[in-house]
């Protein structure tokens, strides 16, 4: 994280009315980060395209007020949280010229234009970036905020599957500050899974599987499909079913989007889906970015050129492995 840029961001959020903008379908990493930042520096949380089920449960636990229809003109400062690309800002995307940024994604189109940012792609979660920013500002770490950051870190590392030593140290610190155990955090997420089982999401994964086209590139299996919703969950299910790379898209009259997921072996071979999504989006005038094994892109129809660009870039990377 660049110290000067982080200090510039802190100066801005301390001196004006701040809108913390959550990405579309905001997950626990995004909600936990934004909750910690709002508690420390004030401002309003805006979620123009809703919260995920884990994000929603975390917001309810914290008693957060999240504005689904924020008006950017009412604020002096706009900060995108856990957001790498403009497309992830949903309907606020066209209204925010150059938002400040708190993020950890390596690839995206918001970093270059951000006037100030707390950005650290070496971090496994945005919650770690938020924690580092709180430390830099000398802000107190309250128990409920620490628990939210712990849950966010846990989910974005796939429950520690992708955690590095720094993430594990941060998790231990957060658990101690929260007065909680890892079992408490896991139990919270397990309750969310049990109480908020979504029939529509399960149906979408089955539809994606039934429509999937499977291609083989040497030792790699690639699945492409389309659904009407829950494209991310469907892509993840295709990888669990055996695909090394899954592309699941949805296309509407005015917008199209695509979720990408990769297997562990594809990731270990050097495939970085955030890099692929960002490069493909630039090729076709879309917006995209994400993690090594999970990414997405979004733009105006038609869908086919974007899908072709993703497949071309991903194939070149895998065949060179």
Give a summary of the structure in a few sentences.
45% of the residues lie in helices and 18% in strands. The protein is of the alpha/beta class and 321 residues long.
So what's the overall shape? globular
Widest sheet: strand order?
A: 3-2-1-4-5-6
The helix-strand sequence is: HEHEHEEEEHHHHHEEHEEHHEEH
Helix content: 40-55%
CATH architectural label of the largest domain: Alpha-Beta Complex
Q: What is the CA–CA distance across the termini?
A: 30 Å
- Approximate strand percentage: 15-25%
CATH domain class name of the largest domain:
Alpha Beta
> How many helical stretches?
12
Mean pLDDT reading: 93
Class by helix and strand content?
alpha/beta
The profile of the biggest β sheet is: 6 strands, parallel
Can you give a write-up of this model?
With 321 residues, the protein is of the alpha/beta class. The chain has two domains: 3-193, inorganic pyrophosphatase (n-terminal core); 199-319, Diaminopimelate Epimerase, Chain A, domain 1 (Roll), CATH 3.10.310.40. The chain is 45% helix and 18% strand. The protein contains twelve helices and twelve strands. It has a six-stranded parallel beta sheet with strand order 3-2-1-4-5-6. Strands 7-8-9-10-12-11 form a six-stranded mixed beta sheet, sandwiched between helices. The mean pLDDT is 93.
Write the SSE topology:
Elements: H1 3-14, E1 18-22, H2 28-41, E2 44-46, H3 53-62, E3 66-67, E4 77-81, E5 100-103, E6 117-119, H4 126-137, H5 143-156, H6 165-178, H7 182-195, H8 199-211, E7 213-217, E8 220-226, H9 231-240, E9 245-251, E10 256-262, H10 264-268, H11 273-284, E11 287-290, E12 294-299, H12 304-319
Parallel strand pairs: 1-2, 1-4, 2-3, 4-5, 5-6, 8-9
Antiparallel strand pairs: 7-8, 9-10, 10-12, 11-12
Helix pairs in contact: 2-3, 2-4, 2-5, 4-5, 5-6, 5-7, 8-9, 11-12
């Amino acid at each position: 994280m660049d110290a000067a840029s982080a200090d510039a961001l802190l100066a801005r959020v301390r001196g004006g009315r701040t809108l913390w903008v959550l990405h579309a379908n905001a997950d626990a990493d995004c909600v936990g980060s934004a909750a910690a930042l709002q508690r420390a520096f004030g401002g309003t949380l805006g979620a123009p395209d809703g919260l995920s089920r884990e994000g929603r449960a975390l917001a309810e636990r914290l008693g957060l007020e999240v504005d689904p229809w924020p008006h950017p003109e009412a604020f002096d400062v706009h900060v995108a949280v856990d957001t790498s690309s403009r497309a992830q800002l949903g309907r606020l995307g066209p209204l925010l010229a150059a938002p400040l940024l708190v993020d950890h994604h390596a690839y995206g189109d918001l970093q270059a234009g951000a006037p100030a940012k707390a950005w650290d792609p070496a971090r496994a979660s945005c919650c770690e970036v938020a924690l580092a920013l709180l430390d830099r500002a000398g802000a107190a770490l309250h128990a409920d905020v620490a628990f939210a950051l712990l849950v966010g870190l846990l989910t974005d590392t796939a429950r520690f599957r992708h955690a590095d030593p720094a993430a594990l140290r941060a998790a231990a610190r957060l658990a101690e500050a929260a007065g909680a155990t890892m079992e408490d955090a896991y139990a919270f997420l397990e309750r969310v899974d049990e109480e908020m089982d979504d029939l529509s999401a399960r149906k979408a994964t089955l539809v994606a599987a039934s429509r999937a086209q499977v291609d083989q590139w040497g030792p790699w299996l690639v699945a492409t499909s389309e659904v009407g919703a829950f494209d991310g969950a469907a892509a993840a299910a295709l990888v669990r079913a055996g695909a090394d790379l899954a592309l699941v898209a949805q296309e509407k009259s005015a917008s199209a989007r695509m979720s990408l997921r990769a297997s562990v072996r594809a990731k270990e071979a050097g495939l970085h889906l955030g890099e692929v999504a960002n490069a493909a989006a630039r090729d076709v005038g879309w917006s995209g970015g994400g993690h090594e094994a999970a990414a997405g892109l979004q733009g105006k129809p038609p869908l086919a050129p974007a899908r072709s660009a993703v497949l071309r870039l991903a194939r070149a990377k895998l065949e060179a492995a």
